[in-house]
């Protein structure tokens, strides 16, 4: 690992100033950053340690009813916060389906949003990767790419965003609070991550020095709590990234859908909101035929980027299953195997 | 550049001068504080051999920069027994054959202590397995490990109740 300067600011303003210097990176838990540094994937000159800043580790309900979560709240702390988990059960389930207990105890909310893709060619310094080195080429094209993107990819990059947490968050219109050189601003989570297009080296719309200080879930989102699920298919049942995942949430009135939220994970370089599916669902009777139509609509623009055509059909089925589970009601407690298609009580088919 | 830190390690206050900010908590323990009980497996957060408790929470010490810790309380495998009396989780690992080669065992035991403190798994073996999924055992002693966690939890619960009585 390349040596670096270690600085520890005492205020957000100082942190932003320090991180605005070229070659700087913010350090929170470091769960992803240190891994990347050990592999020589990134090599910052300066780490700006924000873990000692005060006031960024709170979960609070604001006067307007929205829930604000500080960027330094640990994943486990949020998932096990009884009030939060009862209002946003799909978010808690997504958190508990990711990583391991050790990582969830360390990893932060802000860090989860900014984690890098797990594309094997991005991680391997000997491979060509446009995300790691602009213009270098993409060895994932024509390489081992069965887990790569089927939506929103470009010839320059077919990587996916690995977060589980972000999938229900984007479904619930989460807003990201950012502080930067020009002061504070809000960015809808749906607009935080960039699709690759011609510039895959850019992960997010954040500018140099920008720091995520909190996220906000709008008050209206908790009306979905009785019918909210996260479902994740992975190659082993624990400690694996999603092959495909889906968050599904419904507001129901006697079997009729008043409002629906659907988002996919593991399919694109951002958490993928499926608005076409949501529009199709709203106003209709919740049944299997409708769920199939919604799933088809969500994947209408999907195309394989390699040996991964199976992910398109898998995504459709995961949406149908997640919607059926959501319709049958949020369980009182997250299953022993969170978000697993093999968890007890998750065996019925539509 | 040197950084001076105060850490409480296995109940002892230690003042540590770090000459390099790259040092992980794992390397600090093993290479600089003569506490080699915590093991280095993958060094990338995938195997759990390096698990320790920081302020009561189990974490991967290989992915934690020592520079970032201040006044933290750290518990390693060297600190869990009371003299010659083993921790109930250590006893249970022996009784249940929760190990073969033993290399992953310190991490397994620290993770199990963390899991029991978190009190999320109860007596459900499936929840214990899920809660221990961050600790790999290449010998495949998982059945013994799961049983050891369940047994130790019972023993610890009973002795806690006895204290209350």
Your description of this structure?
The complex is a heterodimer of chains A (350) and B (165). Chain A has a 5-stranded antiparallel β-sheet. The model of chain A has no long low-confidence stretch (mean pLDDT 96). Among the domains of chain A are: 5-52, Uridine Diphospho-n-acetylenolpyruvylglucosamine Reductase, domain 2; 224-328, 2-Layer Sandwich (Enolase-like, domain 1), CATH 3.30.390. Chain A has helices spanning 12-19, 33-38, 75-79, 82-87, 89-96, 101-106, 109-114, 120-123, 166-171, 275-281, 288-298, 310-328; strands spanning 5-7, 24-27, 46-49, 59-61, 67-70, 175-180, 183-188, 211-217, 228-233, 244-253, 256-265, 272-273. By secondary structure, chain A is an alpha+beta fold. Chain B is an alpha+beta fold. Chain B has 2 domains: 3-79, Beta-grasp domain (Ubiquitin-like (UB roll), Roll); 88-164, DNA polymerase, domain 1, CATH 1.10.150.120. Chain B has helices at 25-32, 88-95, 105-118, 125-131, 142-164; strands spanning 3-9, 12-18, 51-54, 57-60, 73-75. In chain B, strands 2-1-5-3-4 form a 5-stranded mixed β-sheet, with helices on one face. In chain B, strand 1 (3-9) and strand 2 form a beta hairpin. In chain B, helix 2 (88-95) packs antiparallel against helix 5 (142-164). The longest helix of chain B is centred in the C-terminal third of the chain and has 23 residues, at 142-164. Chain A binds chain B through residues 1, 3-6, 27, 29-31, 34-35, 38-39, 47, 49, 51-52, 74, 76, 80, 99-103, 105-106, 238-239, 336-338, 344, and chain B through 1, 3, 20-22, 24, 43-45, 48, 51, 57-60, 62-65, 67-68, 70, 111, 114-115, 118, 120, 124, 126-127, 129-134.
């Amino acid at each position: 690992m390349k040596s670096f300067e270690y600085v520890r600011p005492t205020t957000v303003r100082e942190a932003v100033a320090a991180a605005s210097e070229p070659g700087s990176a913010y350090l929170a838990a470091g769960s992803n950053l240190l891994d990347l540094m050990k592999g020589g994937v990134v090599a910052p000159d300066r780490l700006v340690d924000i873990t000692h800043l005060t006031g960024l580790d709170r979960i609070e309900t604001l006067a307007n009813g929205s829930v604000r979560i500080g960027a330094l709240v640990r994943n486990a702390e949020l998932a096990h916060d009884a009030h939060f988990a009862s209002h946003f059960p799909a978010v808690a389930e997504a958190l508990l389906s990711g990583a391991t207990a050790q990582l969830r105890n360390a990893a932060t909310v802000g860090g989860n949003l900014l984690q890098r893709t797990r594309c094997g060619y991005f991680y391997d310094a000997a491979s060509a990767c446009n995300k790691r080195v602009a213009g270098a080429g993409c060895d994932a094209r024509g390489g081992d790419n069965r887990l790569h993107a089927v939506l929103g990819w470009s010839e320059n990059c077919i990587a996916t965003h690995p977060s589980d947490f972000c999938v229900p968050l984007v479904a619930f219109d989460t807003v990201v609070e950012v502080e930067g050189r020009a002061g504070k601003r809000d960015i809808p989570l749906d607009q935080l991550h960039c699709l690759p297009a011609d510039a895959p080296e850019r992960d997010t719309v954040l500018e140099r020095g920008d720091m995520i200080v909190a996220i906000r879930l709008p008050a209206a989102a908790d009306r979905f709590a009785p019918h909210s699920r996260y479902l994740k298919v992975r190659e082993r049942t624990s400690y694996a990234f999603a092959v495909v995942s889906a968050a599904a949430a419904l507001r129901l009135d006697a079997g009729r859908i008043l409002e629906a939220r659907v988002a996919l994970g593991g399919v694109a370089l951002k958490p993928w909101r499926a608005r076409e599916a949501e529009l199709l669902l709203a106003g209709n009777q919740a049944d299997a035929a409708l769920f199939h139509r919604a799933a088809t609509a969500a994947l209408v623009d999907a195309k394989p980027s390699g040996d991964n055509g199976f992910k398109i059909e898998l995504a459709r089925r995961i949406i149908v299953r997640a919607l059926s589970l959501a319709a049958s009601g949020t369980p009182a407690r997250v299953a022993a195997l969170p978000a697993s298609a093999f968890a007890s009580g998750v065996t019925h088919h539509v | 550049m040197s950084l001076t830190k105060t850490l409480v390690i296995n109940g002892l206050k230690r003042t540590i001068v770090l000459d390099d900010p790259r040092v992980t908590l794992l390397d600090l323990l093993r290479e600089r504080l003569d506490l080699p009980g915590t093991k280095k497996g993958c060094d990338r957060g995938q195997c759990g051999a390096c698990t320790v408790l920081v302020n009561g929470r189990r974490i991967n010490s290989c992915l934690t920069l020592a520079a970032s810790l201040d006044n933290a309380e750290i518990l390693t495998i060297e600190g869990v027994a009371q003299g010659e009396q083993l921790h109930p989780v250590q006893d249970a690992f022996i009784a249940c054959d929760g190990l073969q080669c033993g290399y992953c065992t310190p991490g397994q035991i620290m993770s199990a202590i963390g899991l029991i403190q978190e009190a999320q798994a109860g007596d459900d073996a499936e929840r214990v397995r899920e809660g221990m999924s961050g600790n790999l055992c290449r010998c495949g002693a998982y059945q013994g490990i799961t049983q050891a966690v369940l047994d130790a939890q019972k023993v610890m619960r009973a002795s806690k109740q006895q204290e209350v009585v």
